[in-house]
Every structure is written in C-alpha cells, then in structure tokens.
C-alpha cells in the first residue's frame, strides 16, 4: 500500500500544483472558498472528485475543520497534503480504476502545463506518457525523471516500434542534460517524445502504438495480450477472444477494444499450464489448470503457443515466490542501484571534502612550516655569521693554544722518558726484592726447621732430667732406709746388712743406669750444641738479611724469632729448665730431705 500511495500522491501533486498561487506561495483564497463557504471551493471539488474516483467516502466537514482559519491567516499549499494523507489516501483499498483516476488529475493540470507547440503525438499519447512519467519518476518533489529512466523509457518505445536504438545520440543528449539539470519534468518528457528526436522516420500511428504498448506493460501491468481461441465450458464450442495476461489474472474480451469483457482466469501459485496434443481439428493447444476450472486454448501457431505457455508459467512462478511483476521489480532494482550510487557519491563527496579540508590544513601547515623554515634560515644565516666570526677568534686562540700545547707536550715527553727510566729502575729493584724475598723465605724455613729440632732436643732433655730426678729420689730414699737400718737392733743388723748388700747391689745397678743416663745426657747436650750452632747461623743470616732490607728502604719487614730465656746450668750440665721449674724442684728436694731426717 505504501507504493500505491506514492503513485497516487504523484498524480495528485500535479493537479494540486496547477492551482493559482499568489506571490507568497499560498493558495488563492478564491480557489479555497466559494461565496461565504470555506470548503466548497476548488479544494472541496477536488477532494470530492478524488474520493469518488478512489471509491472512498467524502467528509466535507473534515475538510472545513482542517482549513478553519480567519481571513487574515495564511493557508499555504502545504496544508492540503496532510489532509489528503489523513482523510483520503489512508482509506484507499485499491478497488478503483487507475486510468480514470489519472485522467481526472491529467484534466486538472494538462491545460495549464502542456506545450502549445504542435507535437507528433496525440493528447491521448501525451496522457499516457504523463502517467508513465509518474511511474518512473523519483520519490521526491518537485517530480523529475532521471536520465537513466529516460533512457529505459526511450529504449522500450524504440523496441516497441521495431527500430534500432541510437545509443550515441542519447549519450550526447545525456551529456547536455547533465550539465544543466538533474532530470526532466513530465511536460519536458512529453515535449522530448513528441518532438520525434528519437523516433525519426516513424509515423504518428507507429509511435502511438509503441507508447500504448509501453503504457499497457508499465501502468496496466499487461504482461502479454493477443487473439486466441477458447473452448467453452457449456457448449464446448471454440470462440475467438482477446486475451490479456496480468500479474494475477488472464482476462478475455470479445475484441481488443476491451469493451465487452467475457471473463477472467484467476491465477495463483496452484495453477499450472501444459501443452496438449492436437485434437478435434484444433492445433497449438494448451491447457490452464486452476483449482476449480480448466481452460483449453488454441494459439495461432506454435511460436505464439510457446510464448503464451512461457509467459503464464513465469507469472505463476512469480505468484508462488511472492515477487512483483518484472517491470516493477526492475524499476525497484534501478532505484536501489541509483540510491546506492548516490550514497557512494555522497560518501565520496564527503571523503573528498575531508581530503580537501585535510589538504587545506596541510597547506596551512606547510605554509606555517615554510615561514618557520624562512625564519629558521634567517636565524641560521645570522648564527652562521656569528659562527664564522667566532670561528676566526677560535682559530687564533687555537693557534696560541696549539703552540702552548706543543711546548707542554715536549715537556711531558721528557717527563715521560724520565718516568720510564725511573720505572725501569723501580721494576729492577722490585725484581731484586722479589729475589731477596724468596731467599728470605728459604732462610726462614731453615730457622723454622732449626727451632723444631731444638724443641725436639729440649723435650728429650726434659724427659731425661725427669728420669734422673726420679732415680735420685729413689737413691735418697734408699739412703734414708740405710740410716734407719743402722739404728735398728743388732738382731736386725745382720738382716739389715744383708738387705744393705742387696741394696748396694741395686745401687750399683742404679749407678750404672745413672752413668748410662749421663752418657745419654752428654749426647743430648752435643745435639743441643749442634742445634744451637745452627740457630746462631740462622740468626746471623736473618740479621744480615735484615740489614740488607733496611738498606733497601725498608720495603720488607723481617719476621724475627722470639726472645729466648737464659739457660740454666745444673751440676749435671746445662739444661733447658725455667726458673719456676727449678724452684719447684728445689722445694720438692727440700721436702724429701726434711722427711728423711
């Protein structure tokens, strides 16, 4: 219903724009009002006629209420369209005659807008072109038909005339048209077709038949038409009829003037068409099967038969798929393609504007950069001038510094040579000291070994002295026992004498052992003397190395042996006793002596 409403609005728009408008664009009050009435004027008549043609009840009170206004208030041409949508077009159901509706609108606008110059087409053909224009025009106001639709229409008319299409001629016309406007109005399209510019060599009747054929296809939805024989349902006789195929029906008439309609074949998705073999003297037969009836039809020849079967089958397939007729579907695709191209063009223009804006911004940035570069170049030139001046000053200063540097360098080279010599001497002295250090380490090792030998001999001497002390204590004890034995009685004297003899023998043995210990002590003393000599030799070596190190600036501090305690001499010879040990031994001997007394 939306598409139907748009088609109706286009025709009504032509009729409405034919009204007399004052300079401000308002509808003349004389056309809105009759004598004292508000809605009985032109718009009232127009609304009544539209309702009559569209089979819609007319409500004059609603019209008066819609245009209620005082004499001074504006009543513009925009006020009628809301009324038309609300009170007329919303009630349209589609059960009206499109041709009669369009003819009424045509009558209202043709006299004012149709060209006065003579045309090669009749007024009836001009009316049909006007209706075709409303079908092919864009859905925006004021209505125009774009060059693509003009080319489509002219091609259809040229094909219907059986002539060849002049593409080059139309391309030149299209170029000239695009330079001045977006498209043509309905009246300019009628002038273009009526001028014969694209139908040269064709007579008026051929052009009229071609326009009528295109009108039937695009406006009346006639997919195919022609004479064929139809078999009757009651008397079974064959009668010639004029068949007209539409998207949802096949109507058949007595003749092609369409005045005496004999019936309709209602098509739907359940119908089918099939070819029949020749019978009863009839050829080129086919049958149309519907739910309630079947129709047997005979074409004039095999070609017509095949064309009708194919056309009917295509129509049934479209009904099954729920698709519109081919010409309406093609128009919708062309519109969608134009909308897509327009959207792409708008997007391209937007991108171009963005690029242009970006380019302008870049130009501004480049100009700013150029100015900055010029300023930088000026500053660089000034700085270069200062730099050159500074460079001359620096060169002079550098020459002086260079001379001074040469002198300093010579002095440094002399110092380096002197330091190299000193370093060599120092390295030689370090090598000598390292050699001395190695020898000193060897001497220290010898001294350490001598001290270890001395310690061993000392321990041996101490052990011998302890054994000697034990023997002396034992002898003293025996001596005391002898003294006690002398004081005993004579009875015991003999026994004591015997014991004395035994003890004398033991004493002799002990004396022998003591002599043996004396020999061992002498041997230990001789070993001690040898160790002492080695130690003195090592001490002398250490002292000589110490003098050498002190002579070499004291780089190495010698490790000296510890202090030695004075040796003590006993009646058996020198021994390694300390004073504290000797005092302890003396106290022990005195105690033993006191006990024996």
From TrEMBL:
Pfam families: EF-hand_SWAP70_N (PF25530), PH (PF00169)
Subcellular location: Cell membrane; Cell projection, Lamellipodium; Cytoplasm; Nucleus
Major place of residence: membrane
Domain of life (superkingdom): Eukaryota
Domain annotation PH: ranges: 221-317
One Gene Ontology term of the molecular function aspect: DNA binding
CC annotations in GO: cytoplasm; lamellipodium; nucleus; plasma membrane
Keywords, sorted A to Z: Cell membrane, Cell projection, Coiled coil, Cytoplasm, DNA-binding, Membrane, Nucleus, Phosphoprotein
Subunit: The SWAP complex consists of NPM1, NCL, PARP1 and SWAP70.
Described function: Phosphatidylinositol 3,4,5-trisphosphate-dependent guanine nucleotide exchange factor (GEF) which, independently of RAS, transduces signals from tyrosine kinase receptors to RAC. It also mediates signaling of membrane ruffling. Regulates the actin cytoskeleton as an effector or adapter protein in response to agonist stimulated phosphatidylinositol (3,4)-bisphosphate production and cell protrusion.
PANTHER family in the cross-refs: SWAP-70 RECOMBINASE (PTHR14383), SWITCH-ASSOCIATED PROTEIN 70 (PTHR14383:SF6)
Protein name: Switch-associated protein 70
């Amino acid at each position: 219903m939306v598409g139907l409403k748009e088609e109706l609005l286009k025709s009504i728009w032509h009729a409405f724009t034919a009204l007399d408008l004052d300079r401000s664009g308002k509808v003349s009050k004389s056309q809105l009002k009759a004598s004292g009435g508000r809605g009985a004027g032109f718009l009232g008549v127009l609304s009544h006629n539209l309702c009559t043609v569209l089979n819609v009840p007319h409500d004059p009170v609603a019209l008066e209420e819609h245009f209620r206004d005082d004499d001074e208030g504006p009543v513009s041409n925009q006020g009628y369209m809301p009324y038309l949508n609300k009170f007329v077009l919303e009630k349209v159901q589609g059960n009206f005659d499109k041709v009669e509706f369009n003819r009424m609108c045509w009558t209202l606008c043709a006299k004012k807008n149709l060209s006065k110059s003579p045309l090669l087409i009749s007024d009836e053909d001009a009316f049909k072109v006007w209706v075709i224009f409303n079908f092919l025009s864009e859905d925006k106001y004021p209505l125009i038909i774009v060059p693509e639709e003009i080319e489509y229409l002219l091609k259809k008319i040229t094909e219907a005339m059986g002539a060849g299409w002049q593409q080059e001629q139309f391309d030149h016309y299209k170029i000239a048209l695009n330079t001045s406007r977006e498209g043509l109005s309905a009246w300019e399209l009628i002038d273009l077709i009526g001028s014969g510019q694209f139908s040269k060599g064709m007579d008026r009747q051929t052009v009229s038949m071609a326009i009528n054929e295109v009108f039937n296809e695009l406006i009346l939805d006639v997919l195919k038409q022609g004479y064929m024989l139809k078999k009757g349902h009651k008397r079974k006789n064959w009668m010639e009829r004029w068949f007209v195929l539409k998207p949802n029906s096949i109507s058949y008439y007595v003749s092609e003037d369409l005045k005496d309609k004999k019936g309709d074949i209602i098509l739907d998705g359940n119908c089918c068409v099939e070819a029949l073999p020749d019978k009863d003297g009839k050829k080129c037969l086919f049958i149309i099967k519907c739910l309630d009836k079947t129709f047997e039809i005979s074409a004039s020849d095999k070609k017509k038969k095949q064309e009708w079967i194919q056309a009917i089958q295509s129509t049934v397939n479209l009904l099954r798929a729920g698709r519109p007729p081919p010409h309406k579907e093609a128009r919708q695709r062309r519109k969608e393609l134009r909308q897509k191209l327009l959207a792409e063009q708008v997007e391209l223009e937007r991108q171009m504007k963005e690029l242009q804006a970006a380019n302008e911004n870049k130009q501004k940035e480049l100009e700013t950069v150029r100015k900055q570069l010029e300023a930088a170049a000026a500053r660089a030139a000034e700085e270069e001038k200062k730099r050159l001046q500074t460079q001359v000053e620096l060169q002079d200063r550098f020459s002086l510094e260079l001379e001074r540097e040469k002198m300093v360098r010579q002095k440094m080279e002399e110092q380096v040579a002197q330091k190299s010599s000193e370093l060599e001497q120092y390295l030689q002295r370090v090598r000598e000291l390292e050699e001395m250090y190695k020898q000193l380490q060897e001497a220290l090792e010898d001294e350490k070994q001598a001290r270890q030998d001395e310690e061993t001999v000392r321990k041996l001497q101490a052990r011998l002295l302890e054994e000697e002390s034990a023997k002396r204590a034992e002898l003293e004890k025996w001596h005391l026992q002898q003294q006690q034995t002398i004081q005993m009685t004579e009875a015991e004297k003999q026994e004591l004498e015997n014991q004395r003899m035994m003890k004398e023998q033991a004493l002799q043995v002990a004396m022998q052992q003591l002599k043996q210990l004396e020999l061992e002590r002498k041997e230990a003393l001789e070993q001690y003397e040898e160790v002492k000599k080695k130690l003195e030799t090592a001490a002398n070596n250490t002292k000589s190395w110490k003098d050498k190190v002190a002579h070499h600036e004291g780089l190495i501090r010698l490790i000296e042996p510890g202090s030695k305690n004075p040796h003590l001499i006993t009646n058996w010879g020198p021994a390694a006793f300390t004073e504290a040990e000797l005092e302890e031994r003396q106290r022990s001997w005195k105690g033993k002596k006191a006990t024996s007394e």
